[in-house]
Amino acid sequence: DIQMTQSPSTLSASVGDRVTITCRASHNVNNWLAWYQQKPGKAPKLLIYKASNLESGVPSRFSGSGSGTEFTLTISSLQPDDFATYYCQQYDSFSPTFGGGTEVESK
Amino acid sequence: EVQLVQSGAEVKKPGESLKISCKASGYSFSSYWIGWVRQMPGKGPEWMGIIFPGDSDTRYSPSFQGQVTISADKSISTAYLQWSSLKASDTAMYYCARHSSGWDQAPFDVWGQGTVVTV
What is the mean predicted confidence (pLDDT) over B45-50? Predict the structure, then answer.
């Protein structure tokens, strides 16, 4: 399996902050990389696909970048609704895998 | 509206069998891969496997191969996840989710509400 490592595991931030989350893959995933947001008790929600493509309906303050084995999710100006846990997922291999998550909490 | 509605919470004993369901609506069920994701308490999601209802082509994660069975009934637009003999370690939230395209290489763009299984 391709291992996905996210950092940090927890991030403390304030409304209006620029937030960056990193995801590293153990092997090249050829940009087949997605980002999800999950709130407590809810299913994950797709934000970004193919590393940098914004899913329809997702606010433009979310953006994704990177290639190969290193990727980032950036929230340009954190909003109250953005406090949540974020997961990356590679879907390059026959057995997709998720990262361990980054919880964005209020400072 | 594209929607996946899962069956309700289950409480079972070790060794029992179980089949949970995921009913799709609002799109052509036969044309998109649909999969299952496990999330244990306080942990990240784990991709279990996917099925293409059009021809029942099924792929499993090596971690779940032989442990569960994924199936689909396209006549009623419903996917299933089943266990023949549950273990305490199967206690988790299980989500069904649809691939964003007809490819087998795609993220999940529509998710069910989740089914809690307690063993």
Answer: 96
